[in-house]
Amino acid sequence: MGGCLMEDRGDYWGEEEMRLGGDYWAESEMEKTLLCPNCSGEFPSIDAVTLHLNSQSTCWPHESRPQQFPIPPGLRAGYVFGVGKNLFDRLQEDEYDYRRKINTYYPFHDEGEWELGRFLVENLTQTQIDKFLKLKWFHTRPRPSFTSKDQLLDWIDALPSFVPWKVSNIEFTGYKTTYPVQLIWRDALEVIKQLFSDPVFANHITFQPHVVNTRGQREYGDYMSADMAWKIQDHLPVGATQVPIILGSDKTPVTRITGGLEMHPLFITIGNLDSEVRSKATLRAWRCIAYMPIAKFRVHPDYQGILQARLWHKCVDLVCANLKIAAKDGCFMPDPSRYIRYVFTPLVAHVCDLPEATMIAAVIYEISKEVDPWDLDKFQKAAKAAHLSGVHMPYWSDWMFACPSVFLAGEILHTCIKFFADHPLNWVKETVGKRELDARFMVQHKRVGTRHFTKGVTHVNQMTGREHRDIQRTIVASIAGVAAPRFIRSIRALIEFIYLAQNPVHSPDSLHSMVQALSDFHAFKDAIVAAEARRGKKGVKEDFFIPKLELLQSFRGTVERLGTLMQFSADMTERLLITHCKHLFERTNRRSTDFTEQCVRILNHQESMELFNLYALFYSRGASLVNAIHIEDEEVTTVNPALSWVSRVLPDEAHSVHGPRPVRNHFLKGILSEDALTAFHLTSKPDFNALTPVSIQTKYSLLDFDHVLSRFIDQLSLSTGEHTRWDHRYGRFRTWNKFRLQLHSAFQSRVIMPSRVVQAYPPSDAFPLGNCDTVLINVMGDDGQTTSRVAQVRLIFEPKIPRASNLVLPTFLSNPLLYVQFFHFVANPNDRPELAMWTVERTYMIGQHGERYRCGGVVSLTDVTHAVELIPEYGNKVDEKISSATSLESYDRFFLNSFTDKESYHTFSTEFT
Fold it and tell me: Do 396 and 404 contact (CB within 8 A), yes or no?
């Protein structure tokens, strides 16, 4: 009954004619012969091409012939079949390249004018650009070469760019739409060729599957370290390189309250790139390849969904048609180092939310044999009876190696984080009560770098994934005392599962722990039913028929097949929706008829400017356009391929590169612990420069400071043999209100984590008892063994010796010191299995007159090993007199929170005893 017609129109986007009729996609005729990438000779198979390239009469140019290629010894994948041009080399094929050999920044006059033009296009609207160029300021100063916004935009359009956008008009025969349906797209294969040959990624790309073994266990990281990469490679010709395709899509509104305008982009990247690179939107590892039409059909509302789903699949099929041909027959493309590889493009992942995944996966072929797919009424009823979507021709049906049970991988943001917000968090609200739960979050101690819920967590309906993650950090310890132990244990099991699922690397042991956490939830979920916490529209529910909960069972298999789950998280696509839809829409005239085309033009400008800026930077300085392979032995502070390349080749130009900046590495110039595993940073200027012991006792309310410091000096003098003539009672001290502590990643020891601030503020109006954080320190026990203790940092100080003095301090007084107040462990994780956390109490001393006071001590700054978070043991109800400014001072018993962040959780789970 129905069919689909597509025709393309030209203008700005480029021209291509295509007509697809009938009920099925037309199949492309595929060449049976292969061409040599060097001499273009025809050969019947890839083996014949390889034999030709290895022969003595090879067509390789003498100066380009590799030493070991195209057959590397002992490898089945990643052979080189020639030398071609990478992305930057292809920029020199532009029609204006002859002018750029004279002026690199043509059509702009020079680098300064290029920077001005780029700034205007990136930051101002077209109207604002015209206003800027008409300022009287230019009446007495030289004007730029471009005199209007139209001329400036024409110059930007003249910059080298690839993969033109196209507009295809689409019609369903027999089904009319409210407005003409237009697909704005570009060839996905050409985008992949551009991405695969980008020299920026030369040091962050992998061409062949590999196995990583650590401590006798296999390690699952990126896709190339997982099982599916090996299975697909076994089915490819010898020497082939797989370029695993990862798609991402989602629909988003771009207007607020009114208008109802939506955009539905399709993104693409490749699994060869390191997951750290793919996880940052500013690194250009993801590219937009289409804006899907959002059509309204003039049919009964019951049939809108099925027609829209079929239209979506038809569009994806058009965009990815050449990718599917390459997945079956392969194609040649150059890599970042200019080597030509024989590439296959299997689909390995499609990142999307659950409704879209259902639309992609829920298809059937048997029904279409019995019922005409275009008889919508009968076909949709038959599909719904089988719980299917009614799409009879999915885009992936003829994509080699594609299977929705594999490429619809477990997705962290929606399957875990959104699931937590929709279900476990609501169960807790029902059990604890919204008022009490809010109070428990509101009175938690504020730490720098950690979100504090000043107004609680129950009043906000719309929260981001980051806020949901922040709630997960403390919810287990927060509900202790008010919820039943079995209920708490079920919630903790889910939090553990979510934390483990986000590991950047996995081993069989971590996968077993993840599966065990999910098993624990199912063992204790009856407590949720008993608490009547699971509710629906009709009241209490006793079942757990939750699709996302069912999906959690697939996580282990997904990790083993595809690698870690975080590389497929929708956090990335959610961010891309902002940069490629919402931000772009704000710069258009917001007309519903053509806002998408305006967005695409702006996007094209952004990509062209970023590419040209980096190319011109290297070309104008005479640097090579090939990013040399660099083995990074040093510690990693950030992953920004462009910045790393520029910093290595043109260090003075690093400021011109956008994107993530390096984490400040305090291991280079900071204070290091004895084992060099922890770095500390104090500002060169203290908060107080010359306090006396009496001033410290008064300002910081530390009445025993003099006594505790004296004891510290006596003990260290005795143990080290170093003595001093300096009398601390008459000395001066420099003090700080905070310091920074930095560690290496618990998962990847070469990666340096951002530093964490540890506060030690004196009492003030806002914090009447001070604002002081807690840490884990190493202390010497009575048996001479080093042990860990929790302590609250009350003062950061060091002795100040007058410049004219010739007094030399002993080593133990030469570095910054801390005055701390101790806690002691009163229960281990096994004592409270529902929490599985350590419990600590403040340590008190008894004075001569029977008074009780906190046990204080002086330790070296370098004795600190971790910054830790303590959650008070609230009991049945939070004391209304306590606030976040006083909670750490008002309670005596606390839980040592093991869910502070994923690094802390890993440390407490594997190392801390």
Answer: yes
* Two structure tokens written together for 262: 């939506």
Q: Kindly tell me the sign of the dihedral angle through the C-alpha atoms of 321, 322, 324, 329.
A: positive
Q: How far apart are CA 660 and CA 563, in angstroms?
A: 25
d(CA 738, CA 822): 18
| Preceding amide of 404 cis, omega within 30 | no
The answer to whether residues 774 and 792 touch, using CB atoms and an 8 Å cutoff, is: yes
Q: Give residue for tokens 């699994």.
A: 271
pTM of the model: 0.89
Q: How far apart are CA 897 and CA 913, in angstroms?
A: 14
The answer to whether residues 120 and 132 touch, using CB atoms and an 8 Å cutoff, is yes
A 10 A CB-CB count for 726 gives 16
CA neighbor of 871 nearest in space, from 483, 485, 478:
478
* First CA to last CA distance, the chain: 70
pLDDT digits (tens, 9 = 90+) for 211-228: 988 888 999 999 999 999
Is omega for the bond preceding 107 within 30 degrees of 0, making it cis? Answer: yes
Residue 524's pLDDT is 96
Question: What does the pLDDT average to over 745-749?
Answer: 85
Burial of 256 per CB tally in 10 Å (0-12, 13-18, 19+) = exposed
What's the gap between Cα 670 and its chain centre? 28
pLDDT in tens, 336-382: 999 999 999 999 999 998 888 888 886 666 677 778 777 788 888 88
User: Residue 672: what pLDDT?
Assistant: 93
With a CB cutoff of 8 Å and minimum separation 6, the contacts of 718 are none
Higher pLDDT, 70 or 269: 269
* Angstrom distance (rounded) from CA 241 to CA 80: 9
CB 438 within 8 A of CB 459: yes
Query: How high is the mean pLDDT of the chain?
Result: 86
Q: What's the average model confidence in pLDDT over 147-172?
A: 88
CA–CA separation, 144 and 121 (whole Å): 14
Residue 33 pLDDT > 80, yes or no?
Answer: no
Q: Per residue, what are the HEC states of 370-420?
A: HCCCCCHHHHHHHHHHCCCCCECCCCCCCCCCCCHHHHCCCCHHHHHHHHH
Q: Is the dihedral of CA 414, 415, 417, 421 positive or negative?
A: positive
What would the pLDDT profile of 294-324 be if each residue is shown by its tens digit?
A: 888 888 888 888 889 989 999 999 999 999 9
Q: What is the 3-state secondary structure (H, E, C) of 808-829?
A: CCCHHHHCCEEEEEEEEEEECC
- Specify whether the CB–CB gap between 417 and 552 falls below 8 A: no
3-state secondary structure of 798: strand
pLDDT over 60 (residue 17) = no
Q: Centre a 10 Å sphere on the Cβ of residue 348 and count the other Cβ atoms it contains.
A: 27
What residues pair up with 516 in beta bridges, in sequence order? none
Q: Give the burial class of 543: count Cβ atoms within 10 A of its Cβ; 0-12 exposed, 13-18 middle, 19 or more buried.
A: exposed
Q: Give the whole-angstrom CA distance, residue 902 versus residue 445.
A: 20
